[in-house]
Structures are given as structure tokens and as C-alpha cells.
Amino acid sequence: MKIATYNVNGVNGRLPVLLRWLQETTPDIVCLQELKAPGEKFPEEAIRDAGYNAIWHGQKSWNGVAILTRNLPIEEVGRVLPGDPEDVQSRYIEANVNGIRIACLYLPNGNPAPGPKFDYKLGWFKRLAAHTQTLLAMDVPVVITGDFNVMPTELDVYKPERWLDDALFRPEVRAAFRELVAQGWTDAIRKLYPDEKIYTFWDYFRNAYGRDAGLRIDHFLLSPHLEGRLTAGGVDRYVRGWEKTSDHAPVWIEISES
Questions:
Q1: Residue 190 is inside which H or E element, if any?
Q2: Is there a catalytic annotation at residue 106?
Q3: Structural contact between residues 99 and 141, judged by C-beta atoms closer than 8 angstroms
Q4: Does the annotation place 236 within a ligand binding site?
Q5: What are the residue boundaries of the Endonuclease/exonuclease/phosphatase domain, all occurrences included (predicted)?
Q6: Of 59, 47, 48, whose CA–CA distance to 18 is shortest?
Q7: Residue ranges making up the domain that contains 133
Q8: Model's pTM, two decimal places?
Q9: What is the per-residue pLDDT across 171-223, written as a single tens digit (0 to 9) for each?
Q10: How many domains would you assign to the chain?
Q11: 13: domain CATH number?
């Protein structure tokens, strides 16, 4: 089973890119972030014509997450991260697919830091950590994936000295990610490539993609049930070079049948 995550940076504006990538790579499950569209504007018909079922949680202008499946039933089980009933930002959606609990997230950016947006990011991280403990306690296979807006180590960022005060790389954020993983999750891409430079995002400015001045901020976390079933993974970085594409590239893993 092939599972992918892709921050599309506007699902309608990047729809030709998304559909081309889906046709060329045919992942079984796809988690999307930054839909930047309210629910009624999600391109359900085009996604369906491409062979995918979909559930989504949209929001006007910003955020938005979705889970797509190819030839697999999907059962939505939640679209709000527990812990703050006043938080209405569309950053999380969760579903059961083929015996696996799939959690798709778009963690807050947090800039400028320090400040209210950074505080919101750390608070969101704490809520996520509480919920992931609950997911682990369910004793079922779980995949948590999406745009975490965190570079966990210096290996995950081009010229880390330039990012020391950024909300994606501040010590508090990296510590929160480490603590999350330490609950018992496996960072799938880093497990497959423990010492390699791998990026998933390149800014639109200063020819970042051409210079390979990137960041690894899109991650897969696997519950203990799936660690031994991880067989492959990678980044479709060539998609970042397409015309009118997202500043992220799709990331994917393959899981063997149990």
C-alpha cells in the first residue's frame, strides 16, 4: 500500500498538478494540506473522475486538509484536534482506511516567533501530543502525516544557522517534535534514510529549488504496528519543478500487507 502526503498550496489553483501527479504515481491513500478552499469549493468531481474518494475539512482562504483513497472505502472519524473547542482552524482530519487509522494534519507555522502565533503553534503541538497518546493506546495501526512545519534536526534544513530564530526550527519546536516521536512513533523517512539530506519544501524565492536550498517539514509518523511493515519511501521532488506547482513536493511511503 502506497500512502502519500502533499501540501498542495491551493487545491484549485494547483489542480492540474495534483491530477497529473495522481495519474502518474497512483498512490492508494493521499493526505493533502493547505487546500485554501471552503468545503463547498473542494473539487470533488475532478478528484472522483481521477479515481479517488475524498473527505475534506476546508476553510476559506487558508488551511484545509483532505484524505483521498483509490479503490478503498474511507470512514471519517474526526476533523477537530481535541483540546480547544474554540479552535476552528481546519488543520486536522482523521479516518479509517483499510484497517489503518490515518491522521492528516497541517501544523501551524508559528511565525513570527516569539508572539501569539508561536504560542498557538506550541499549544497545538501539546494538543496533538495528547491525542497521539490516545491513538497509541488504541493499539491499532496508525499513520500520522502531513506538513508539520518542523525541521527536526540540522540535517533537515539548508544552512541551519540562518533558521535559528524561525518558528520551524526554534529549540522549543524541535523539542516538541522529539517528545512526540518518543511516545513510540517512527519517523518513516528518517528510518529509511538515516543520514541523507532529504528536503520536501523549497521556497519560491531566490531559486531555492534550483539551488536545492530546502527544508524537510513534511513527515510520516508510524505506530509500532507499522514500523516493521515499512518497505520504501521517498520524495517526488521532480513535481516541485513542474509549472505552477506547489512549493512542497509529495512525500510517500509503502507499507506491506500485515
A1: helix 188-192
A2: yes
A3: yes
A4: no
A5: 4-248
A6: 47
A7: 2-255
A8: 0.98
A9: 999 999 999 999 999 999 999 999 999 999 999 999 999 999 999 999 999 99
A10: 1
A11: 3.60.10.10
